[in-house]
Every structure is written in C-alpha cells, then in structure tokens.
Amino acid sequence: MEESRIFEGKTNTEAIEKGLKELKVSKKDVDIKIVEEDKKSFFSILAPRVVKVEIKLKENKEREEQKAVKNEEKVVSKENLEKAKDQLKKFLEEFISNMNEKISYEIKQQDDNTIQVEIKGEDSKFLIGYRGEVLNSLQTILIAIAGRNIQEKIHVNVDILGYREKRKKVLEDLAQRVANSVVKGKKSVTLEPMTAYERKVIHTKLQNHDKVKTQSIGEGEHRRVVISLK
Asked: Is there a contact between 156 and 139 (Cβ–Cβ < 8 Å)?
C-alpha cells in the first residue's frame, strides 16, 4: 500500500519540503520524483514557473518485517516451553516476594510459541504505568528471562488486570474517530508514537476500511501510524 501525492513550489527544494512537512515524514520514508512544468499565463510570458513533485510513501516496513519474522519462526519444543515457564516462575516468585504487595500471577501457554503471563491483585496497578509503559518494560524483561539459554524464539505476552483489552478498545475507538476525520477533512493524520503492539491494533482495525489506509513511519520508539485516504 502506497500513498502518492503531488506538491508544488517555486523550486524543487521548496516543493519537497512542503510535501515532507504536510505528510509529516522524512526523506528516508518516501520516494521522490521531480516533475517540472512551466506555468505560462495566456496574457504574460512572465508568469512564474511552478515545480511539481510526486512523493510516495514507501511500503510499510513494519508489515514486511512481521512477514519475515513469521516465516522464520519455528514451533518451540515442549521441553523448551516448560523450561521457559520454569524460568519465568522462578523470577516472578522472587520479584513479587520482594514487593510485599498482594499480587498473584498465572503462567499458561497461549500457543506453540507464546506464553501468557497474567498478573492479578489490586496492588498490581502500579505495574501498569502511564499508558502501559511499566507493563511494556516488564514484558521486555520477562521475554529475556523466558528465552535464557534457549535458542528457539519464545514470545511472552504479559497483562495486568485486563489492561491490554481495555487499551485495545481505546485504540480501536481512536482509529475509528481519526479515520472519520480523515474522510471528512480529506487530509492525512499522523498519530503519536506507539509501541509495535499498539500500531498493530490501529492497522488491524482499519485494514478493511473502504476509504482510508494506514502506514507506519519513523524508527524505534518514534515509530508512528499515518492514516490517509486511499
């Protein structure tokens, strides 16, 4: 999926900068084609020249990366899954005992490659953090713990008090509201930086929308979703 638009300026640089600013992207995220046209007035040969620039957003690197990872993944052996669960259990037992809070957890297998960790108890709220920042950091740590001394790729999904599902609903509502705004205003909108999980929620919610499309731009923690007209 690509977005292609034409921008005008008195010079190539002006037209390109105008396009990048409006699309809220950098040069590395787009393909640029210069088209020069002389805009001559019927009454005057001194009419200013207008340079036209075609700018296309590059293919969604995030989806390509996800496809590549999926193709490389293999089913994790039962032995390694059990080993990963044991490593998670040992870490969580010590982690929770040191907090002196009323917190419990449950470890279960979600699929052939994924372990689900659910943390419960009212005292566990502080482990969520602002917009799930602490929760995401905890998940990163548990992924490292689970995969210790295991060659196979093991995924670990962590949730606290059902936060993931609540956050998913908020993001889906946001996606729909922004999509409606894009259709009405006929201008693309760039969302704030999000995690890979949050971007996936936005992409999934709008993937079958008949009037808008989504595109991820940026790098690392600054990666964000652009919602634009098809």
From this structure: yes
The residue assigned the tokens 């990366």 is 65
> What distances in angstroms separate CA 208 from CA 49, 98, 171, one per listed residue?
41, 47, 16
The DSSP output letter for 151 is -
- 151-203 residue pLDDT tens: 888 899 999 999 999 999 999 999 999 999 999 999 999 999 988 889 999 99
**Rg of the Cα trace of the chain?**
24
70-122 per-position pLDDT tens digit: 545 567 888 999 999 999 999 999 998 888 778 999 999 888 889 999 999 88
Q: What residues contact residue 115 under an 8 Å CB cut-off, 6+ apart?
A: 81, 84, 85, 88, 107, 108, 109, 146, 154, 155, 156, 157
Buried b (16+ CB within 10 A) or exposed e, 118-133: bbeeeebeebbeeebe
Q: Give SS3 for 213.
A: strand
**What span, in angstroms and rounded, lies between the C-alpha atoms of 39 and 50?**
6
What phi and psi values does residue 102 have, to the nearest 5 degrees? -85, 85
DSSP structural state of residue 121:
S
User: Which string of b and e fits 174-206 if b means at least 16 CB within 10 Å?
Assistant: bbeebbeebeeeeebbbbeebeeebbbbbbebb
